[in-house]
Amino acid sequence: MRKKYNAVPHLLHHNQIDKTAWDVCVHNLAQRQVYALSWYLDIVSPGWQALVMKGETGEYVAVMPLPVRKKYGISYLQQPLFCQQLGLYTTCTLSDSQLGTFLELIQAKFGYTAGYAFSTDNTLVLNQISGGQDWGKLYTHHLSLQLPYPQIWQGYTRDRKYNLNKARRANLKLINSQDIEPLISLFRENIAHKVYGGVAEQAYIMLRRLFTACLEKGIAQLMYATTETGNILAGGLFVYYGGHIIYLFNAADAKGRQLNARTLILDNVIQRNAETSMVLDFESPMIESIAGFYKSFGSEAIPFYEWRYNRLPLPIRLLKQARQKILTYSLNNKTKYK
């Protein structure tokens, strides 16, 4: 049973955060997420701030990372790349008023958030307060790997089984690697042009740093599917932490898509981790075709909340709203890809 505290959270700037105490708090959670570890946040959101609630002896008992960005002199929150979820991480039981205090402190400090995603573990408690227009429900897909592989395979759709056999008949080879450059090249050449607004070079720099850090900590697996002659057709980066395998980044060329190379990669990860307590998190985006691809492995749609609000002065707010409408229209009309 988790303990209750009467403490209140405090906003801490980056240099005020005790990162050792922070990581101890995150590591002690029942649902631990790699996104919330201090070193991960340092890479994806340099200068991040936080709300922290302390226990009786000064230990961190509830933390909430705040990915702060600044533009035109305005500080706001925006979900970082390679970080699908954040939210409130707590080793204690919070009252409704304490939860409300966390959210009130954020709104008092930041007049705008472009989207802040709370972890799937926060969904139950947020159900009570998320009825307003500031809240949207998103979904990722999880596949429990507790069962033996043949039973998990039975949960694949008929089409997924067919495409897996197609990939096997193509005699593709799977290799583990410590070189992320081929994966970045696959993405640049085959996917980046489909992303609205393009992909900044900084995103690739961040990915390289993140991969290096995960590799050094022994939690990364990078797998490529190749032809018999060694030509790389597809790749997938997986991060193992806290009982979850996160499908963090992937790409394939036209031939890789035709031969279902990513299906072969995912099936291999499922086989190798079957009959464990691990959960494969596909990090599914809200794109129907991609979500359908992940669902075809027998995964379950898991909800989480995204918080968006705009309390900026009216002229700036209207400008932001117009830009968001243009972005939403462009994304909805962009060619979908698998």
Automatic annotation (TrEMBL):
The keyword Nucleotide-binding does not apply. It comes from the Bacteria. GO terms for molecular function: transferase activity. The lineage of its organism: Bacteria, Pseudomonadati, Bacteroidota, Cytophagia, Cytophagales. Transmembrane segments: none annotated. It comes from Pontibacter oryzae. Residues 160-278 form the BioF2-like acetyltransferase domain. Keywords: Transferase. This is GNAT family N-acetyltransferase.
